[in-house]
Amino acid sequence: MDESARLAWGWRIPFWLSLLVLLAAYLVRRSLDEPEIFEEKQESDGLVKLPFTNMISTHPAQFFQVALMSFQVVTNTFMQSFGLAYAVSVGVSASTMLWVSIAGNIIAIASQPFFARLSDSFGRKKVFVSGVVGSGVMIFVYFMTISTGNLAMIFVSSMMITAGTYAASNSVYPAWFSELFNVKVRYSGMAIGLQVGILCAGFTPMLATALVGGVSANWGPAAWIVAGSSVLAVIGALWARETNKTELRELGNPVP
Hints:
The protein is about 80% helix and about 0% strand. By secondary structure, the chain is mostly helical. Helix 9 packs antiparallel against helix 10.
């Protein structure tokens, strides 16, 4: 659709369509069985009533590890928001950048399961760290290509991040983050730790906008924010323990 219609009402369409995703998620979740170990804890009244308090007291390190590793989302946040605005400011059309994003995410549908399988074989940590480091480096290439306006290179650099480096780290975290916690507090640890990191990361595009100051050639501060966020994620990952070969019943132990 033309830009005026998209800005007036078209942007609402994906939000309304997300109701279908919500319905699908609800139906899928209802059909899934709980893990055997969770059902055993539930039947024996082994689940805690205040999981957040228990999680903080028994898994403080894991909580901060997940919060730090969650900063890996800064890469995607910048590409989907700041990167789009920056590209438009240097003369690349918004529709072109939207197609760049769509293409990358379509390829990532195939690449993410591949990286997830690699993490089963070679370890969560190796795949996650490789992806985060790759994104921290490639983000400089991404912004540099946008500043030149070279559409072919913009597509290539975006694909390398979205379907490559970022897909690698993004494919690992749902399993790895939850595996760091004992079944008693797994939901709270995963959900709260992840959201703390994402909440902090959500302010970074605003910081980048202020530092760039509307100067199209001054993309460096934005790239360095992503690189700095990648460093935080790597610190959390190196601090966390490897879990890909850990038995289900041993995940997150010991817990009082």
